[in-house]
Design goal:
Distance between the termini: 24 Å
Shape: globular
Structural class: alpha+beta
CATH architecture: 3-Layer(aba) Sandwich
Number of domains: 1
Helix content: 10-25%
Number of strands: 8
Strand content: 25-35%
CATH superfamily: Gcn5-related N-acetyltransferase (GNAT)
CATH class: Alpha Beta
Oligomer: single chain
CATH topology: Aminopeptidase
Length: 187
């Protein structure tokens, strides 16, 4: 929890997912670690790599960062995601460790919406991410959420197996006008 702002709490209405609550939490909690492990196993089966090498949970803590968990109506963790700002471009955040458990609907959209809202509140103007081209489900999910393919950046530059996506975020106080009923994502 951010002591200065308190937790980010987004309760998603029935139009997206009934009974899902997204809250800001530490990525080192047992629930977060369990979901991140599930994500890593899913990515390993889809892409051949777990994604652990490109994401340290510690990078999703502190200034310019955020990590959230989604819980269903019974309090069971069903999704997670985070972002971190780039050191050389603090108005750009990188979405990391996005995951929604198989069989859930709308959890990925709820997590991503919460992350985008917090990024905007922190002054971000763009959100970027990377996934593997072979992960067509994740690519399609992000495109349905308004992300577009951008040139591969940083460690992904020149990697044919990677696809980078980005989205312009509205200024703080502006409305994105976006509603979604899309499925969750892995990526």
């Amino acid at each position: 929890m951010d002591e200065t702002r308190g937790p980010v709490v987004v309760t998603v209405q029935a139009i997206v997912t009934p009974g899902v609550t997204v809250t800001r939490e530490d990525p080192g909690t047992e629930a977060a670690a369990r979901l991140i492990d599930e994500l890593s196993e899913a990515l390993e089966s889809i892409t051949g790599a777990s994604g652990r090498a490109s994401s340290d949970p510690a990078s999703l803590r502190g200034e310019g960062a955020c990590f959230v968990l989604a819980r269903d109506g019974t309090g069971t963790p069903v999704g997670c995601g985070g972002f971190r700002a780039f050191d050389d471009a603090p108005q750009v955040v990188e979405i990391k460790r996005m995951y929604a458990r198989a069989g859930t609907r709308g959890v990925g959209a709820a997590v991503l919406a919460a992350l985008e809202r917090e990024a905007i509140a922190q002054g971000a103007r763009e959100a970027w991410l990377e996934t593997r081209r072979v992960n067509a489900r994740a690519v399609g999910f992000y495109e349905r959420q308004g992300y577009v393919v951008i040139p591969n950046y940083g460690r992904y530059a020149g990697r044919e197996d990677a696809v980078c996506l980005g989205k312009s975020l509205p200024a703080a106080g502006a409305s994105s006008g976006r509603t979604s009923s899309s499925d969750g994502a892995r990526g």
